[in-house]
Task: structure prediction
Amino acid sequence: MDQPTLPYLTMKPPCKSSKYKGYDVRWWPPTDDTAAMIEVDVPSKTDPNTIYAVVLSPDEINCECKGFTYRKSCVHTAMVRKMIAEARSKDD
Result:
């Protein structure tokens, strides 16, 4: 069963969305009340029917998976951090 995206992000439409290396990516600009946020849908490696939303803001990164819940780190957040680092290095 697919995991729902985090509700505080789905309450307003995304500013922009695209695919990056095959992953669905949505991002919101900062507002008076919130910082800029990026949400990436990352498929589970063990269950092809499960997609986890990884949310990145300037202060933190979160994932919906059980591993992140217990360890505050997981393969999904590591993959998103790597994607962002690669994208930044291409911009330089």
